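Might you be able to consider the sequence and fold that I enclose below?
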Amino acid sequence: MDLIFDYIKELIGTGVLLTIYISLRLLTTKLVRRYAKSSHTLEHRTNLVIKYIHLFINILMFIALVLIWGVETKDIFIALSSITTVVGVAMFAQWSILSNITSGIILFFSFPFKIGDVIKIHDKDFPFEAEIEDIGAFHVYLKTLDGEMVIYPNNLLLQKGISIMKNQFIDKEFID
């Protein structure tokens, strides 16, 4: 029983943190879904963004939990610097994956184009027109006018010039 009284502040802090954690997850999920509904975004894209936001919240809550339970600051910095070093080396080798995920989130919230739009990609070496079939976490699936499926990385959509030729809400017909 004395053990519980020794850690009463930590237990209360953990309870408050748990309440904030659950509330924050529910609130962000509701806000992202409301935003997705108003911008006519597909369900699976919405779920991807929610998953990324929940991961960020989980990391923040873990750090807060470690601080509540009194792990010494120097131990936290040693652990974080070690983890950052390992992750940094891994991400240096896989920077394009992180870039594509970030681009996918930017495309979700800025939505300059949507599934069903016909776009023209102004690439010096390989310009083409295509209809957006799907937008995933890493790639955009495009169908050219010839019926060819092209998988295009999200980060290149933000780097290249794009013209929207036909918008799905303005012009519903697409040349098959």
Observations:
- Helices lie at 2-6, 8-38, 43-68, 73-93, 95-110, 154-159.
